[in-house]
From TrEMBL:
InterPro entries: DNA/RNA_pol_sf, Rev_trsase/Diguanyl_cyclase. It comes from Neobodo designis. Gene3D superfamilies: 3.30.70.270, HIV Type 1 Reverse Transcriptase, subunit A, domain 1. This is Uncharacterized protein. It comes from the Eukaryota. Residues 118-132 have a biased composition (Basic and acidic residues).
């Protein structure tokens, strides 16, 4: 394969393509914290069989080799400097103090013995060796930069199970790139990590608006993954090779499947360490993750009376601290104390915050206002809670615009932007033209992939919009650019109903936590035809969620202006319920019928994935009604979140009917 000639990929499918200025605008038209970025398109030198880069050197069909963009500088003084001795000591304390914190136990074990390997890892002679080829071209420049930052360090010993990775760059902003270590083959050798729980939009709204008059502060950890270290026993599995040198990666690569799990766990331990340093009898209580193996998505800071004094939300390296606003000089400033304690926890682990280039400060602090993971939360002058997505590249989006014919990747990115905005706004009423367009784009990507067409070639395929699609997409695009704030449901709706549903291929059950549970037989009858033909489980999950809402509508025929917040114990079903086209056309029709029913009553329905809220549904997975014992179990699980009212949109306390 190495001896094969390099071929300009675009010559294989068309004449040389001139630079499209709209492509560069779309390259950076994105929210900083969310993956709706279109990577800068490089015309690559590709292997004619795989359509993958041979040398890693960017190549223009018109202008020849391109200069490599500079990388975002990483201070060698922070690389792999985390104090794992202190991290492990704190993890032992958390595991001892909080029953069920198995994630803390696993973190200690994995850093001692290595992370779990796949049952049949592609090792030795049986392993794919594509990435064992020496890196050449611009990739060697990337390696040199990583070496200078001490992320890559010289490997001095041979190892029979050494796994090699390639490196490449993606745009971080218009000035610099981010270096990515391709862990595709490395991940094959490791077992799949536990599912990771993060505070979804509905939960975030409830957490941020829990305190009616709040001080909210945010901070980011600087180059977090690079500050964490690869376990010594696994270091040989993270290797990079040039023609004259072999390296191992000392810090956690962003592309490794276990990196997010490690980051979330260690960030959580920073919170635990912080609480231990605060004055008085203060405790950090972790919210439940999707399982005992999953690190907490957020933590409560409770005083000795048990009152919640602060909430710390974590998305990997992004921290948010919400507390009640200090109203008098004699009051305790909980936000200030928690921030100071988190600073001490970071120092204990030898981790560093990212600091503002102008102010040199780590924390952004405001009353009733915060920007976090691509969302701007605030309260207006009348005290109404609002939120909207953050778009720091609106000018780039405007220049990019919508055209009747666009590269496939641009259409996909606009649809991603629309989906993200709909997700942030807790709405899912997209037009039929948009839903059909999503299906067409997905089908075309799938067809090209099945035909063996490489990603870079797939991305630049021309895609022609119909007149109806162009009109619908242009209208929504214009609405997105306006980005009007969304008002909190409690400002628009009279009541909130918390629902939970669960389904399996053999049966389905719905549980309404603040009303009498519907009859299990109803659900069994409604999903029978789907179960019989072995429909995808996520279709059945979606249908069960839909019928749970519909049953509640039937139970309250006079209900108006109600938000039905439904907990679904399947992340994919949540996505379909909230806006994406379902895999099954019949399920999609049912969703549209529900939309009409809700619209007539001025109601809305929104699904979220909140593990502790779905636990009651697990207790009725055989279609049996709740009894006193199960109610106790459900309440016990719900109370692991310490303050029940914090779950999803700060709903009223649960009232479960005992049958």
């Amino acid at each position: 394969m190495l001896g094969m000639p390099q071929v300009d990929a675009f010559v294989q499918i068309a004449e040389p393509i001139p630079e499209d200025p709209r492509i560069r605008h779309f390259a950076f038209a994105r929210s900083e914290n969310h993956a709706i970025r279109l990577k800068t398109i490089h015309h690559m030198s590709l292997d004619p069989m795989t359509l993958e880069p041979i040398s890693g050197q960017p190549y223009s069909a018109n202008n020849g080799p391109r200069a490599r963009r500079p990388l975002d500088k990483v201070d060698p003084g922070i690389v792999a400097m985390v104090n794992m001795k202190q991290v492990e000591e704190r993890a032992r304390m958390v595991a001892k103090q909080h029953k069920g914190a198995q994630w803390a136990v696993l973190l200690i074990r994995y850093y001692k013995d290595g992370f779990p390997k796949s049952e049949k890892p592609p090792e030795g002679d049986a392993a794919p060796r594509f990435d064992s080829r020496p890196l050449t071209g611009n990739a060697t420049g990337t390696v040199e930069d990583l070496k200078e930052a001490t992320i890559l360090r010289e490997a001095t010993t041979e190892h029979r199970l050494r796994t090699f990775a390639s490196v490449f760059q993606v745009p971080k902003n218009e000035e610099v790139d981010r270096a990515i270590i391709n862990c595709k083959l490395i991940n094959l050798g490791f077992a799949k990590p536990p599912s990771l729980s993060l505070a979804e939009i509905g939960t975030l709204l409830g957490l941020v608006k829990y305190f009616e008059d709040a001080t909210i502060s945010t901070a980011d950890i600087r180059h977090f993954f690079w500050q964490l270290r690869v376990p010594k026993k696994d270091m040989h599995r993270f290797s990079v090779r040039t023609e004259d040198m072999m390296y191992h990666c000392a810090a956690l690569p962003m592309g490794w499947s276990w990196s997010p799990w490690v980051a979330q766990a260690i960030a959580g331990l920073v919170v635990a360490a912080a609480a231990a340093k605060m004055e008085g009898d203060v405790e950090a209580v972790p919210a439940s993750g999707s399982s005992e193996d999953s690190p907490p998505p957020y933590w409560y800071i409770r005083d000795k009376s048990g009152a919640v004094r602060g909430i710390v939300v974590i998305w990997y390296d992004n921290f948010l601290v919400a507390t009640a606003r200090k109203k008098s000089a004699s009051e305790r400033d909980w936000n200030k104390e928690i921030r100071a304690a988190l600073d001490q926890g970071m120092k204990e682990f030898k981790l560093q915050w990212k600091r503002d280039k102008g102010t040199k400060l780590a924390w952004t602090i405001a009353d009733n206002d915060a920007k976090y993971i691509g969302i701007h939360f605030s309260r207006d002058a009348e005290g109404v809670f609002t939120w909207k997505h953050i778009d720091e590249n609106v000018d780039a989006w405007k220049k990019a615009g919508i055209a009747p014919e666009m590269p496939l990747c641009e259409v996909a990115q606009v649809l991603g932007f629309i989906t993200w905005d709909a997700h942030v706004r807790l709405g899912r009423r997209l037009s039929l033209h948009i839903r059909d367009l999503m299906s067409k784009v997905g089908a075309l990507y799938h067809t090209l992939n099945e035909a063996g067409v490489g990603k870079r070639v797939r991305d630049v395929q021309p895609f022609e919009l119909t007149a109806e699609e162009f009109q619908a997409l242009s209208y929504l695009f214009e609405e997105l650019l306006q980005n009007k704030p969304n008002k909190a449901p409690d400002a628009l709706l009279t009541r909130v109903r918390l629902l939970a549903s669960d389904a399996t291929p053999t049966c389905a059950a719905g549980v309404v936590l603040d009303a009498r549970p519907p009859a299990a037989m109803t659900f069994a009858t409604q999903i029978a035809k789907y179960v019989k033909r072995k429909a995808h489980i996520n279709c059945i999950e979606t249908l069960a969620a839909l019928n749970t809402v519909r049953s509640q509508l039937q139970a309250e025929p006079d209900a108006r202006n109600v938000l039905f917040a439904i907990a679904v114990d399947n992340t994919t079903a949540v996505s379909w319920f909230n806006g994406r086209t379902a895999l099954d056309a019949d399920v999609q029709k049912e969703l549209e019928k529900l939309d009409d029913e809700l619209l007539l009553r001025g109601c809305r329905a929104w699904a979220w994935w909140e593990p502790t809220a779905t636990q009651p549904a697990d207790e009725t997975s055989k279609g049996k009604p709740l009894d006193a014992r199960k109610v106790a179990i459900c309440k016990g699980r719900l109370e692991t979140n310490a303050e029940i009212g914090l779950s999803a949109l700060q709903l009223t306390r649960y009232r479960t009917t005992v049958v």
